[in-house]
Design a protein that fits this description.
The protein is mainly β. It is 11% helix and 40% strand. It is elongated and about 80 Å long.
């Protein structure tokens, strides 16, 4: 899925501004005299993965001169993980278009699945940002949210968002690779030294190495290979007896997953269906001359996992950083 994030951001900011403006207008008869109004936008796109955030902007207002906002509460159907929060700032844009925070209340309080900000500023309108950190226990389930604003005269208004499905995928960011920390486990989503890997031989799926062989006319460079690969692709890397897992590797495209790249302008995501349906039969057990920004589709020998490994950075010598998005297949 691709999204133009500049247009999305522009639309989001305009949506909140229009919502707040419209909510400050006089109510109609169809509103039964209700002065307090609200609106909401969901800012995050792409699949919802445990450990990541779902991000909303919730706008609320009463007509100017008729009262003020007292509190705002968000109730999630599944309690969020640590870091779930409702900001106690509202925002406006300065002349340069940058967001400027304005404190409107006390820091949020989390009580179970409810997050509340109590207003301390006399204001009739605000747009608060809510960040829900997806917990592991939500994997494979749906989560919904109820946003509620309350005015000082006791009026309340609520809006439900969702349900949103939470993926069964796992993500591990910023795994450090070095000349010695080069044994990679898809199951553990981690890299190990030889001494560490020797204790978990059956969990090592890939070995990373770097060799400069351009003088020999070979673009070898940064290499990822299965422990069971032909020794020519491992080039003297120590493989202990019993470390013999096989994998299938298919080179991926440039910056294919925004969750792993920190490049929001790309707006592309790997979802469960991509990992479920990609066919890796017939692909080799090695990938040579890998570059930063690219990656690899990988399937473990037992078919238990499929993963996409993104290469965040590589040094001009041995070492770099990778990130993994993984799905358990069975």
């Amino acid at each position: 899925m691709k999204t133009n994030h500049f247009l999305y951001r522009l639309f989001s900011v305009l949506s909140v501004a229009i919502a707040v403006f419209s909510m400050t207008a006089c109510s109609s008869d169809s509103d039964n005299g209700q002065l307090l109004r609200d609106d909401i936008i969901k800012r995050t796109v792409g699949p919802n993965v445990a450990g990541n955030k779902i991000y909303f902007v919730y706008a609320m207002a009463v007509p100017y001169g008729t009262g003020k906002i007292q509190s705002c509460t968000v109730e999630a159907s599944i309690t969020g993980a640590d870091g779930t929060m409702l900001e106690n700032n509202s925002y406006h844009s300065d002349a340069s278009g940058f967001d400027v925070p304005v404190k409107i209340g006390d820091p949020c309080v989390n009580e179970g699945n409810k997050t509340t900000v109590t207003f301390t500023t006399d204001t009739c309108a605000a747009a608060l940002r809510y960040y829900y950190v997806i917990p592991n226990e939500a994997k494979g389930k749906d989560v919904s949210f109820v946003f509620t604003a309350k005015s000082a005269d006791g009026e309340t208004v609520s809006r439900k968002m969702g349900p949103y499905h939470i993926s069964n995928m796992d993500i591990k960011r910023d795994i450090q690779l070095t000349k010695t920390r080069c044994y990679i486990s898809i199951e553990n989503m981690a890299a190990y030294t030889l001494a560490e890997a020797d204790t978990i031989k059956d969990k090592i799926d890939l070995v990373y190495l770097w060799r400069n062989k351009t003088s020999e006319g070979v673009n070898f460079g940064h290499v990822f290979a299965a422990p069971a690969a032909d020794p020519e692709w491992l080039d003297n890397i120590k493989i202990p007896d019993g470390m013999n897992n096989e994998v299938k590797i298919r080179k991926g495209e440039l910056n294919i997953d925004t969750h792993l790249t920190d490049e929001p302008a790309y707006g592309t995501y790997i979802d469960e269906v991509d990992l479920q349906t990609i066919d890796l039969n017939g692909f080799p057990d090695y990938a040579v001359n890998m570059k930063a920004g690219y990656g690899m589709w990988v399937e473990t020998a037992d078919g238990k996992y499929k993963a996409y490994i993104h290469i965040n950075s590589l040094r001009n010598i041995s070492g770099g950083v990778i990130s993994i998005k993984r799905l358990r297949m069975k």
